[in-house]
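Q&A log
Question type: sequence-to-structure
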Amino acid sequence: MKIALISPEYYDIAHFGVKRMEIPPFGVLYLASVIEMKGIEVSLFRVSHEKCCFDFSGYDIVGFSISSSVTYPILKKVRNNSQFNGNSLLIAGGIHTTIFPEDVITDLKIDIACVGEGELTISEIVDTYPNLNLFQIKGIVYKDSKTDKFVHTPKRELIDDLDTIPFPARHLLPKNEIVMDDRLSNTHLPVAHILCSRGCPYNYNFCANQEHSIRYRTGANIRKELEFLIDKYDIKGFCITDDNFIVNKEKIEDICREITPLHLQWSSLSRVNTVDEGLLKKIKESGCIEIKYGIESGSPRILKMMNKQITIEQIKKAITITHEIGIRVKAFILHGFPGENLESTKETIQLLDELKNKIDRISLFRFVPLPGSPVYNNPEDYNLLLPQNFEDIFIYNNGRKWWGTKHDQDELEQSYQMLENYVRNNWEKF
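Response status: OK
Response body:
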């Protein structure tokens, strides 16, 4: 049996005008590792609008990884322009597929849409191929050939013990997508990316995350992966790419204890209300040199509308303590959420100005209604102007106006330019 996994190339949305490769495609890499453990050959195809024509006729199963609306048109292009074996099983997964499985089946003319985590599902598909009893496989959607209706099988349970999942099949990537020297704060250390947890317990109105629980790998398991990366790739640091790493204090302390002897430098994301002085000291001792905080806005009104569940005082306290302990601070700002105006933008600038000597880097994003987010799902509540096609929802520094009247939109553009100019004048890199 031969299996092809297709993953689009996509680039760092935090960088303006710079085409810089994003984090590794962990979704397909974990699937590949599960399949390879069964002794089955896996090929990974990185695709783009320019690289969209391939011969998949020699593969028994072809899988499409659709992470967002950005990558959706790329996968459609690959599906239409490539050769496939008429007997091949075509499947799709990823967060976009999880949210819109029926659309994916229809548009890409595939057999199975995988919903949620895919490791157990793909394992079951591979084990029973080609004699599949689709109705008995949890976590999939397919079209019944007799009734021409969509069938949604029972929800696939989450994997409780993440340590049971083999490490991602990084060997399927070129080395420059495994080890990078421009990712860890202000250093040029060779670093890798890792995932330490899955899920996020928070439900921001702008976020498309579908899993609102969080599960962690053990510190020992993470240490084992890092030791492998040290031995194999000689890394000197790593970046944690979890949606929200610093949530469970006990789990974080366990991880810190295990990785401290490795003497690696690292960074991660966090909320401002999940850290305290004691925890930050342990994090620093374990090698952390930068924490990225999702501040989003300096306006209490906008934060409430976003459902961020944080206060301005919590922002100030977390950034101040982090800075004083000696950990660099990167702030994420999201501008343009419905209701944004000159007043709220000035509040954001005021907050940044108060904290500018404590914030080392800034990533400035424009609001885009991500498919599957509460905003996207309730457009009438936010006066949204949604396009008809997914592919028009483009997140790369998108200047499109997504809501409001002409007056609202003019004010929004004026306020964004004011904020961007302020950031550019006060931070060399953002």
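Response note: The chain has two domains: 2-152, 179-426.
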